[in-house]
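User: Hey, my collaborator sent me this sequence without any context and asked if I could get a structure. I don't really work with proteins. Can you help?
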Amino acid sequence: MTPRALLPHARPRSSGGNPVVGTVTRGTTNPNRLRRMDRWIAATHGAELRRAADPVAVDLGYGAAPWTAVELLGRLRTVAPRARVVGVEIEPARVTAAQPYEREGLTFRHGGFEIPVPQRPLLIRAANVLRQYDEEAVEAAWERLCARLAPAAGASRGGLLVEGTCDEIGRRHVWVALGPEGPRTVTFATRLGSLEQPSDLAERLPKALIHRNVPGEPVHAFLRDFDRAWAAAAPYASYGARQRWLRTVRDLTADWPVTDGPARWRQGEVTLSWESLAPRG
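Assistant: No problem. I've predicted the 3D structure and written it out in structure-token form, which is a compact way to encode the shape of the chain:
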């Protein structure tokens, strides 16, 4: 992927003299909101972080309070003890407010999509950021962020960009995982006890997909099939929502390229290849 000129607006220059790329978002955040995304990152990307000499992760657009960056450091260090987190925010006042929370392994910087860190990070997490942009801005933002990731080398696939959307308390979440080469997978994650049907997750589709949930688009067909499999698995509800979900996802694998397995399904997750859900045209 090659960074494009078409990007969210450039704001005044940062203290380092480089233009800050992006616009201020609402900044709403709650403690523990991103726990599902963090657990998935730790499970699927922990080996890359452990192998790195300097495993740097960026929490892009952490919002009006620093909780998500603080929590990301704690969760990453359970699998990669040397991990460091840099919280990046485009609103200077939010950076100032977060700085009292700095500690060993955790810092905060003013910036945006340009990612103002000297090294290429092994992880960029951008949760509930692009949701507030136009759909046309997504591809350019992805390209710029992927270009900042640590490159693939040898056995390493390089850095990971995780971009997605969740509800206010983190019960429902959908995210896209991208490497230096571009999009890889889409993950749907939910608190199973709160789910009436899988298509409830449609309202949390990331910006690249949310406007494509219409007939003729792959994501619409997937959610339709997901609901049908969920209905067919209704007899398993007597054993609990988790058993119903497990049966549902297992049935989906007959027609859809599910890339994970029961260990992740039990967490209320399912991951598919990006190509299977990518917008047509």
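In plain terms: The two ends are 18 Å apart (CA to CA). You can pass these tokens on to your collaborator as they are.
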